[in-house]
């Protein structure tokens, strides 16, 4: 089972990173999906989508085991936010094949994002970054990816449609392998702040809230 790690973030929160090496059949056996999930899985035309869908849920199932929660599957709301069936624990997940990340917390709202830095970020950065953030990133691909991951994390925490450029702000940070920043979300003139951790790994960048 190629989970890179399951890490305790605090007493109520755990993180899992998965490197997909199994076949679709092996992942399906690990998940043992319910009939409704089987029909969803069979509806995917892309094998990549099947891998990510399965591995994300196997990752969540592994975290549930650590938390002493019996995994009965996931459901999603209209915004695509995942929820555990018959559990009040909060979950979040992200994937960028062949990697999957998942986060679980017993009570608090959470968000996580994993991305592989790509050149496309330079072309679209103006769509999701403020002028100040663009200047701070200095066109560095890892910095741009951290900003993107941070705002995706905020989006998942807030669970509502918000404008990445105008309603989110990420404070300046020092570009390093592992660091912290603060993300802010502005809705109806109310500002909410979240402490975020970012990690620059060999093949991907990861962010999640603390």
Automatic annotation (TrEMBL):
GO terms for molecular function: holo-[acyl-carrier-protein] synthase activity; magnesium ion binding. Keywords: Transferase. InterPro entries: 4-PPantetheinyl_Trfase_dom, 4-PPantetheinyl_Trfase_dom_sf. Pfam families: ACPS. It comes from the Bacteria. It comes from Fulvivirga marina. This is 4'-phosphopantetheinyl transferase superfamily protein. The lineage of its organism: Bacteria, Pseudomonadati, Bacteroidota, Cytophagia, Cytophagales. Residues 110-207 form the 4'-phosphopantetheinyl transferase domain. Coiled coil: none annotated.
């Amino acid at each position: 089972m190629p989970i890179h790690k399951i890490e305790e973030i605090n007493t109520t929160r755990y993180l899992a990173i998965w490197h997909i090496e199994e076949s679709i059949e092996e992942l399906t056996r690990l998940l043992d999906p319910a009939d409704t999930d089987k029909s969803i899985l069979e509806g995917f035309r892309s094998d990549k989508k099947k891998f990510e869908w399965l591995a994300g849920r196997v990752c969540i199932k592994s975290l549930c085991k650590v938390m002493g929660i019996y995994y009965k599957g996931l459901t999603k709301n209209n915004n695509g936010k995942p929820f555990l069936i018959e559990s009040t624990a909060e979950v979040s997940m992200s994937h960028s094949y062949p990697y999957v990340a998942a986060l679980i917390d017993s009570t608090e709202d959470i968000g996580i994002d994993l991305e592989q830095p790509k050149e496309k970020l330079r072309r679209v950065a103006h769509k999701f970054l403020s002028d100040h953030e663009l200047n701070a990133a200095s066109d560095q691909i890892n910095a741009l990816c951290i900003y993107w991951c941070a705002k995706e994390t905020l989006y998942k925490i807030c669970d509502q449609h918000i404008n990445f450029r105008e309603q989110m702000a990420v404070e300046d940070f020092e570009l390093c392998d592992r660091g912290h920043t603060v993300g802010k979300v502005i809705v109806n003139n109310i500002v909410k702040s979240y402490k975020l951790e970012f990690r620059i790994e060999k093949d991907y960048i990861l962010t999640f809230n603390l």
